[in-house]
Structure formats: C-alpha cells, structure tokens
From TrEMBL:
Spans traversing the lipid bilayer: 12-36, 42-64, 76-102, 155-173, 239-260, 266-285, 297-315, 352-372
Alphabetical list of Pfam families matching this protein: Xan_ur_permease (PF00860)
The keyword Transmembrane helix is annotated on this UniProt entry: yes
Superkingdom field: Eukaryota
Membrane topology: Multi-pass membrane protein
InterPro entries: NCS2 (IPR006043)
The protein's name: Nucleobase ascorbate transporter
Family label: Belongs to the nucleobase:cation symporter-2 (NCS2) (TC 2.A.40) family.
Annotated keywords: Membrane, Transmembrane, Transmembrane helix
Broad class of where this protein is predominantly found: membrane
GO CC annotation, single: membrane
Organism the protein comes from: Solanum stoloniferum
Amino acid sequence: MVCKYKSRHYFSLFWSRLINPVVVAPTVAAVGLSFYSYGFPQIGTCLEIGAVQILLVIFFSLYLRKISVLGHRVFLIYAVPLGLAITWAVAFLLTAVGVYSYKGCDVNAPVSHIISDHCRENIPKMKHCRVDALHALGSAPWFRFPYPLQWGMPVFHWKMALVMCVVSIISSVDSVGSYHASSLLVASRPPTPGVLSRGIGLEGLCSLLTGLWGTGTGSSTLTENVHTIAVTKMGSRRAIELGACVLIVLSLIGKVGGFIASIPDVIVAGLLCFMWTMLTALGLSNLRYSEAGSSRNIIIVGLSLFLSLSIPAYFQQYGIIPKSNLQVPSYFQPYVVASHGPIRTNFGGLNYILNTLLSLHMVIAFLVAVILDNTVPGSRQERGVYVWSDPETAKREPAVAKDYGLPFRVGKLFRWVKWVGL
C-alpha cells in the first residue's frame, strides 16, 4: 500500500513541496503587475469615463463596504458590477445624445484614409468612448451554437507549444495557493496531493476543450474568486454548478455576447485595473501563511518582484522594434520581441523559446522565488510550508470525501483514472 501510494502521488508530492507561500506570493503578484502598462494608458484615451469607472469601484468597495442592504453588503460584493453598470449607462447616454459624434468622421475608416485633422484628433475618442463602435449588438445573432473546430483545424508550432507548457506549469502555482486558501475559508481540511493533482489535471482538460472550441483563452483557477468566498461567505459547490449552467445557457444567446462586446475599451481597462490590483494583493496575501517579517522572505519576495519587472523590460526593449509592431498591445510584446531578443545562438528555436520565456513577468518571478526559497535555509514555519491532508486519513472521514468528491457521482465512472481520487 505504501509503495502504491508513493508511485501514485510522487509528482504531486514533489510539486507541492516546491510550492510554498513565498513562491506563490510573488508569482501571482507578478501576473497582476505585468499589465501596468495597459491600464491607465488605455483609460487616458477616454478619461471622463475611465476615471469615473475606477473612482466608483473604489468608492463602493472601500467607503461603502460596511453598508448593508437587506442584510447583505451589496456595495462590497457587487462593487465591480455596480461600477460597470453605471459607467456603461453613462457611456450609452453620451453616445446616444451625440457627444462622441463628429461631423464627417467615420470610426470604421482606416487611418490611412483619414485626411481631415479634425477627424484624426477625434476618431480615437470615438473608438474608445462609444458603445456602438464595433456594432456588435446589432450584428450578433439571437442564437448561436458553438461547436468544436468551428474556426478550422488547430495549428501546432512546437516552439510556442514548449513556451505554453512552461507557462501552464507556472500557472499551476496560482492554483496550488488558491486550493489551500479556499479550503481554509470553507473550514475544510486541506486537499490531499491527489486532489491537488486532479484539480490541475482538470484545468488542463478544460484548456483542451477551450482550444477545440476556439475561445482563445485557457482555463485556470481565478484567484479573485477566493476573495469572493471570503466576502460573500458562500462556499457552496451547488452555487458554482448552478452558475456554470446559467453561463452555458447564456453562451448560446448571441445577443448577450454582443451586448457585452459593446462595452467600450476604456471601461474594460478600468475594470481590469481593479481586477489586476486585486490579483496582485491576493497574491501577496499568501505571505500570511509564512513569517512575512522574516528578512529571508522579504529579500526573496522583493528580488522576485523587482526582477520580474526589470528583466522582462530588458528583453522587451532590446534592439529596435520594427515599425509594423508599434501598434501591438503591451501584453503581446513578449511574443513580438521573441525574434530579436538578446539571446542569439545558432539555434533559432532555442532563441525564440528563451527570449519569449524571459520576457514573461511571471516566469522570472517563479524562477527566482522557487530557486531561492528551496535553496536558502529556513524553517518550515518561516517558509510557511503548505500542509496537505493524508489521503488514507481523508478516505476515512465522510466530510472530507464529500467536500472533495466529484459531483453527481461522476467519480464512480472514473475509478480507473488514478488522479481523480483522494
């Protein structure tokens, strides 16, 4: 039994021993900080809407957070949706009354075709402030049924595949910290290494499905939802299952997607400024499981965060970026610079992989943190080593099996898959 257990959970145990709060904190925080160049520069394109968006969310989430309506702290729980609804309505009204309509200017006209200086000056404001700049709501069908491979067969490039494998592994660091924090918030025992492995495996499976459906995004644990559990005191799995069903139904209604797509870019940037701020803060909050005042931990976290911003800046600013790439958003810059970074060996594929990986903030934060935390001496208490439940003990506790068992007795269908168990 012992040999079987060791062979079954070897990788999970190895991975969970490497990942501790001192590693999770800077890695997750670096993800939020990496988008700093996108936030306010985008808001500045329509300051009268973007600034109001940020101020409303701050006002609701901080100054009105203790006000209860029918026993619920509405402003704290729904700070982001309320701020979005108000600024979206303001943008809609300003668009409807013609504030962002300029005579003779077409928002869809190519830049090269715009001759008037008046239009050159005002078209950027039209693109970022109007709610109908993309005509998404009017052109969207009422019902649309997505299906696998709807955009054609997947294209495989081995260089990008290796990059994404590394990024996926580092993304799992966020999941490890979120699993542990969630178990504490719902007053349950920490998950076992098997549950940890199953969670990360299911994230990979969901990413495979999103690739087949062509969504353009992967699937991973959302750290902000851990904060949602803390605020709402709602840790029911049934609520998540019901919410998932509602979202699946809404995804079939094209007008819902068109309505969401009508959100001006500046409002999206305002929302993401708050969300990335939360991501950064929640990442650093993992330090509460360790000795945050330890000089060892301060140096490791500080170095990880600073180098995660500084080293990618060096790689992204190395050489001269071709003029054709000047309009590429900042969050795509790592892929733009991959072909002309400072690493130039005789192997083009190796140059691409290393230049791209070292241009990613979370990669640098993870590498610095995991190397230093696992080589610099420190006690388990100082490092805040995560404690995982023993599988054999968990199996004998009905409450633990209920908390971590797959819903609707799905687990019985996958008994042959070792990583779905406790």
